[in-house]
Write a structure and sequence with these properties.
Elements: E1 18-23, E2 26-27, E3 33-37, E4 40-44, E5 52-61, E6 64-74, H1 87-90, H2 100-115, E7 121-122, E8 134-142, E9 145-151, E10 158-160, H3 170-185, E11 199-207, E12 210-217, H4 224-234, E13 237-244, E14 258-262, E15 266-270, E16 273-277, H5 287-304, E17 308-312, H6 318-323, E18 329-334, H7 337-349, E19 355-359, H8 362-367, E20 376-379, H9 389-395, E21 400-405, H10 408-420, E22 423-431, E23 441-448
Parallel strand pairs: 4-6, 7-22, 12-13, 17-18, 17-20, 18-19, 20-21
Antiparallel strand pairs: 1-5, 2-3, 3-4, 5-6, 8-9, 8-11, 9-10, 11-12, 13-14, 15-16, 21-23, 22-23
Helix pairs in contact: 3-4
């Protein structure tokens, strides 16, 4: 049985919990601090190696005790003062108490530990300056006060936020417009506990001076034209959309998104590829880091001189378009119908004719693709990993597989399968897609081991 850490809020700590003084030795695989004392392993969320902390023993399992952080008695040399005034209440940037240099070093070391069994060369973590281009805002009214911001993981309450260091100045202008719209039109706020109210979330994407905003309600929202006018005063190019989500879920957008006013797409370019984004298009949250990843991927694939590249989970098709430059043919598979359609439009817009787009599940789609051995696969699966698609990929006997992962746990499991099938995990690069968080994006190059004749 796997130990599951419980929720802990130091502001409402039960009085009978045992309080301990602990010196943190290292991070675990979830970037929680770890201390060993009297044969017991203590895990402290929010603690950094080198910290001496006061912690409350919340729950124990076998020889592990999960602790809630109460106070830092003596800070680690690697601990810094968070620059954000909402750090303690927002919870979105859980790695902001570490400087960027140490953050990259910790993430590099983490990837080395996870891939150590495979003898993989792990390069230093790569980062690029850039802001997050997607914002999900929640709403709450407390004693008549309107809170617009992010949900605190500990309290499950909405932290009222007027600015965010991870986003451009657009964040403050967006919050102001939403706040004025809600107050001017008496828009009711959804209360999950009772299922009352209408407005649940606002999901924005901002790129190259263009904003697409989706407001989410339990039913159609009132006075949306007024919201559009308020946005238009602040943003030259803006599109407003609506999503009706009456489901009992924490997921913001469920089902179709309806265009209301203004722009329908964001138009941009990456590495010479022109593309368009809709309000619900999948796109990496940090465009600068995304560009670095794709540039690195293109160079690796180019070095393999493939006749065919198989691009799995290809989204709107930027990677497929890039790979078309270095291969005679690209087979691109994407399960989301809207994304596959957008990919065909992207290829047409960029004058690319050597990419075959297949709409469908990766595992099932590959069963109907003619096998051309010796190609290269690029895979960028969801958090669950490749699942059954691994066996289908191996049927093609690719000379290399380039695996981009947002979940190290499923990455390691999938790498194990490739290694067992005669591949070597040659190299890995961590990418700091979400600065000041514990998230790390990882790209691993797997190469087929050629047996000596």
């Amino acid at each position: 049985m796997k130990f599951q850490k419980p929720d802990f809020n130091p502001r409402i700590m039960p009085p009978k919990l045992k309080v301990l003084t602990l010196e943190v030795e290292k991070f675990d695989n979830n970037f929680a601090g770890v201390c060993y004392k009297n044969g017991r392993r203590y895990v402290i969320d929010g603690a950094i190696p080198g910290d001496v902390v006061k912690a409350a023993a919340v729950e124990s399992f076998n020889n592990i005790t999960y602790c809630g952080l109460l106070a830092v008695v003596k800070p680690s040399e690697k601990r810094v003062r968070p620059k954000c005034r909402y750090y303690d209440s927002c919870g979105g940037c859980d790695f902001m108490a570490v400087g960027l240099k140490d953050e990259l070093a910790f993430k590099t070391d983490y990837v080395r530990r996870r891939l150590f069994p495979f003898g993989t060369e792990v390069r230093d973590a790569a980062t690029e300056k850039g802001f997050r281009n997607k914002i999900t805002l929640a709403f709450e009214k407390t004693n008549g006060k309107l809170n617009v911001g992010f949900i605190d993981d500990k309290t499950k309450k909405v932290t009222d936020v007027s600015e965010c260091l991870m986003h451009e100045a657009v964040f403050s202008d967006l919050v102001k417009a939403l706040r004025f719209w809600i107050e001017d039109n008496d828009v009711s706020i959804y209360v999950p506990r009772f299922g009352t109210g209408t407005l649940r979330f606002a999901v924005a994407r901002y790129l190259d001076g263009q904003l697409l905003l989706t407001v989410v309600g339990t039913k159609s929202l009132p006075s949306t034209e007024d919201l559009y006018k308020k946005l238009k005063k602040r943003f030259p190019k803006v599109g407003l959309f609506e999503n009706v989500n009456a489901e009992k879920t924490n997921e913001a957008v469920v089902g179709d998104v309806k265009h209301l006013y203004g722009e329908k797409f964001i138009e941009s370019e990456m590495l010479g590829i022109k593309f368009r984004l809709g309000p619900d298009s999948f796109f990496q949250t940090n465009a600068a880091v995304c560009g670095k990843i794709y540039e690195d991927a293109l160079e690796i694939v180019r070095g393999k001189n493939p006749s065919v590249v198989y691009d799995m989970y290809s989204g709107i098709g930027i990677t497929s378009a890039l790979f078309s430059r270095v291969a005679k043919k690209v087979v691109s598979v994407e399960i989301v119908k809207k994304a596959a359609r957008a990919q065909k439009e992207l290829l047409s817009e960029n004058g690319i004719s050597n990419v075959e787009v297949i709409e469908g599940d990766t595992e099932e789609a590959l069963k109907n693709v003619a096998v051309e051995k010796g190609g290269v696969f690029f895979v960028d699966p969801p958090r669950r990993g490749l699942s059954g698609a691994t066996e289908e990929i191996l049927r093609f006997e690719p000379k290399a597989v380039l695996y981009l992962s947002c979940n190290p746990d499923t990455l390691v499991k999938d790498v194990e399968k490739f290694v067992a099938a005669g591949y070597k995990a040659v190299s890995a690069t961590p990418y700091n897609m979400f600065r000041a968080t514990t998230h790390v994006e990882i790209m691993v190059l797997l190469e087929k081991i050629e047996n000596d004749e």
